[in-house]
Hints:
The protein has one domain (2-146): Up-down Bundle (Four Helix Bundle (Hemerythrin (Met), subunit A)), CATH 1.20.120.1370. The radius of gyration is 18 Å and the shape is elongated. Helices cover 81% and strands 0% of the residues. With 149 residues, it is mainly alpha-helical. The protein contains 4 helices and no strands. Helix 1 packs antiparallel against helix 2, helix 1 packs antiparallel against helix 4 (120-146) and helix 2 (45-74) packs antiparallel against helix 3.
Amino acid sequence: MQSSQASAERRYAAQTKHDTLLESRTATLSLYSQLAALRPFKPDQGVQLVIQEFCEALVDYTASAHFQLYRFIDEGTERRQNVLQLSKEVYPNIAETTQQILDFNEKYDCEDHCDNLSNLDADLSKLGEILADRILYEDQVIAALTIDR
């Protein structure tokens, strides 16, 4: 009976973490769309505010994936070998997208600079592809985690 209760508690904790990740992802994608709609980009205050908000959401989402998804696995809470193996295979790809996301943030974080937006259109398009790949990787892990034992 205790084993069943512990399994249910682990599943609930995992679901809560997934929900947090998905909420963060949705907020980021919404801001991505909002920013993309401001094309052509001009360094005015309205664009700068959306870029800043987007960059903050992007970093929060990126951190959320690590804290809500992989930390759960790294802490040893997850015991299913198929999930652990998939995570091991997918994590390097997610780590690569993380670096690309951080590079974008460093380039466009408006607290430091927002005057040169000449490459934002191309960089935003590339970032969209990176986010699409990342979502596919994350969804593979989430799907494996949500399958009942």
